Amino acid sequence: MRVATGVPGFDELVDGGLLTDRLYIVSGPPGSGKTTFASQFVTKGAIDGQTSLFLSLHETKEELVEDMSNYEFGFDKAVSSGRVKFLNVFESEAKRLLAPSSRSGGDFPDNVENMTNQIVSFIENKEIDRLVIDSAMLLEYYFSDDLDDFIKFLTALKRADATALVISEMTDPTSYSDEHYLAHGVFFMHNYLEEGGMQRGVQIIKMRGTKIDSNIHAARFSDRGLRVDPSATIGD
User: Fold this and answer.
1) What per-residue confidence (pLDDT) applies to 188?
2) Sign of the CA dihedral 42, 141, 108, 114?
């Protein structure tokens, strides 16, 4: 089964949408459209009657709603509908929800296994269909003392009953990190200056179970968010 991303033109590049209950990495440099892509993804879920969890490690719900207010794809309505649950892991509410059994008194549970189990349990108990984690960079910082813990966390996400997007601040599409190898799919958002202005593109680096076109396809921001032109390729 596949689910629509809510990004016009993108699903044509991945055989009609994302395979459900799998882990995908959305990578690219700052300002390339990663968070907009993820916001459209959870908004489309709300439109289709699904419940999403947007787990942020650096931005509040109010900040993200304000950022997305420049577009007309309905992110604010999706959040207010209750179909998009937003948690900032450093806020007290998120700490209670994601780590209710912690006795450490700190910001995180006693151990990685406990934190992982709480997040997966939250996804299952709240019947979350779509998950966004923004971003992998801070996850990597938290797990910096033990790479195995980071890998275990991502592996657990792959087993959760939710279609997950993890945003990654990768700037070089040829330089892979652990999350890219573990994920079922990796999408790279390009942006670079050319004569005449900023050129944007989307590239499917890999996607298991799907025949893909790995060319860079033209993308742009519109009033309704990010759009991809599946018929237009750029670069070499």
Assistant:
1) 93
2) positive
